[in-house]
Amino acid sequence: MARLDASNPVIMIDGRSGAGKTTLARLIRMRWPRRERVQEIALDAMYPGWDGLDAGVDAAREQVLVPHARGLVGVWRRWDWEVGEHAEAHAVDPALPLVIEGCGILTPATARLGDIRVWVEAPAAARKARALGRDGDAYRPHWERWARQEERHLRRDAPEALATHVIAVP
């Protein structure tokens, strides 16, 4: 059941690259109905490189979602894409709401840790135009490589079926 009434709800947003996950996460955080601060994590900051979709999701589960569910402070390290290694650490307060977005976040192992689970769907051409418009030449040579990891996630984890909400973006 989708719950926003928990004192520290977790909202997970999954979808393929360019679907609109980051925009939706930002809108949720900015329009949060209560006074407390909302923590927002983009898995783009956790994936360890272009082949790191699964490793980034595993790190999010172990370092952020599980501690948050247990009422413990989670600590994750940002991936520095320019240097190709982990950088500074970030703490996640278990007493505060959390919005976490990124391709791969909805899996059978993570779904039970989310109060609201969103799948964002968008047409392939629109997604590619948005993603390459946003990240340009840095992403262009890796588009197909990343798409293969997304497709593996879709086949293995069926994220849309784990979602409490499905949003279609043109």
UniProtKB/TrEMBL annotation:
SUPFAM superfamilies: P-loop containing nucleoside triphosphate hydrolases. It comes from the Bacteria. InterPro entries: P-loop_NTPase (IPR027417). This is Aminobenzoate synthetase.
